[in-house]
Design goal:
mainly alpha, about 425 residues
Length: about 425
């Protein structure tokens, strides 16, 4: 007799165990690359702290200028970087980027050891980091799609998100310890060592022909293109990536949602949380606990998604619906932070905000990467980076001005409203619900 409706008691757990046992492990090449990438991210986070610390000695305006140079260089060139990665192949671009950064960090260590930390040296280092990021980030963003089957993408990206969050949490303390022990030169040498390890990992990836870019593989499968094809200019290729993403209903909706989340969620803990702690008289310790709780929430959501994957359970939550639900949860956490009467409530709000944003990122990332054609993987990742960076830059300035005029609770409440509205609109979007 076939039973319909809910399963018998205990069957849910048995089904979940069976699914977990049947789910294949992530490919070893991806795990090796991910380990190297997260080691590099840890070194980068430590160097970022060291650069900020050194720049702060020249005043707040100088520290802000160093960070701005990185962001502006990355934003201006990221679409071209995506076109280069699609043309030449992600692995080639990453090898070049790691080689440049290995040389740059060694040179930075030597120069800082001789000259100290003059502002011009810090600005030059920031410019190099921003330019390399513009080419590296789209290439590294496409790597999971190149190394992992489509069905494993959610788990692969969730594991990457968890590793990145862990690197972010540990990077500042590591940077502080390295600066205390040996200053900027020591931190730059440690970052150089991480680039050397990542270079070795990339060289050992089992790629039969590294000259084959994703576009070349797509032409080989479809039989289009000839050996006499002339590549279009990089700007035209970058524009083609923008046209493709904005012309595809799913990618367009996902990118708009990513921009809305970046503008409404990211400034809350980084900018408005510390302002709230100061205004309420809670002190720096409370602000640190709120930020730490947000990071812990992101990490917990990423680890859960990495363990369960997209197919866990009888009725898995769709990628678009899961991303929308994550935004709604983050909106509740931000609202709690806006109304928090005591630090403990603010910490819980930060935790809920992090868990919701972690669920959002863990669901939206596979959706965007899976919807991108092989020929445009890096360009779509570049556009995702551009949309998030632009939204963050615009909202951060406006929210800071509003906080000065009306206090921090008002912009935090507006962020909660905007995040919740984005989540509700995503739930109402047919194209995202079906994703």
């Amino acid at each position: 007799m076939t039973t319909t409706g809910s399963l018998a008691p205990g069957a849910d757990a048995d089904a979940a165990d069976s699914a977990a046992a049947a789910r294949p492990a992530l490919p070893a090449p991806y795990l090796r690359w991910l380990a190297g990438a997260q080691l590099g991210a840890l070194g980068d986070a430590a160097l970022a702290f060291a650069l900020g610390w050194a720049a702060a000695a020249h005043g707040g305006a100088a520290a802000g200028l160093v960070l701005t140079v990185i962001t502006v260089a990355r934003t201006l060139l990221v679409l071209v970087g995506g076109a280069v990665a699609d043309r030449l192949g992600a692995r080639r671009v990453m090898l070049a980027g790691d080689a440049v950064m290995l040389a740059a960090t060694l040179a930075l260590a030597a120069a800082a050891g001789v000259l100290g930390t003059p502002l011009r040296l810090l600005l030059l280092a920031a410019l190099v980091i921003g330019v390399v990021d513009a080419f590296y980030l789209p290439a590294s963003g496409s790597m999971p799609r190149l190394l992992v089957d489509a069905g494993q993408l959610p788990r692969a990206l969730a594991l990457r998100q968890a590793g990145g969050q862990l690197a972010a949490l540990l990077g500042a303390p590591l940077g502080g310890a390295l600066v205390a022990a040996g200053g900027l030169p020591a931190t730059a040498l440690v970052d150089a060592a991480s680039f050397a390890v990542l270079l070795l990992v990339l060289l050992l990836l089992p790629v039969s022909d590294p000259r084959l870019a994703p576009a070349a593989r797509a032409r080989a499968r479809t039989g289009t293109g000839t050996g006499t094809d002339r590549p279009a200019g990089l700007l035209r290729e970058a524009a083609a990536g923008v046209r493709l993403a904005t012309g595809d209903r799913l990618l367009r909706a996902a990118l708009l949602l990513a921009g809305a989340a970046a503008g409404a969620v990211l400034p809350v803990v980084a900018l408005l949380g510390p302002l709230l702690a100061r205004a309420a008289g809670w002190g720096a310790g409370a602000a640190g606990l709120v930020a730490g709780a947000q990071g812990a929430g992101v990490l917990a959501a990423a680890v859960l998604l990495a363990r369960r994957g997209a197919g866990a359970g009888r009725r898995p939550l769709g990628a678009g619906t899961g991303a929308a639900a994550g935004l709604c949860a983050a909106a509740a956490g931000i609202a709690l932070l806006a109304a928090a009467p005591v630090p403990a409530a603010a910490v819980f709000g930060g935790l809920l905000t992090g868990a919701g944003s972690g669920l959002f990122a863990g669901r939206l990332g596979p959706l965007v990467l899976g919807a991108a054609p092989d020929t445009h993987l890096s360009r779509v990742q570049a556009l995702l980076t551009l949309v998030q960076s632009a939204a963050l830059v615009l909202s951060t300035g406006a929210l800071g001005l509003l906080a000065d005029a009306a206090g921090p609770r008002v912009p935090i409440a507006l962020c909660a409203l905007a995040t919740g509205a984005a989540g509700v609109l995503a739930l109402a979007s047919p194209v995202l619900r079906r994703a």
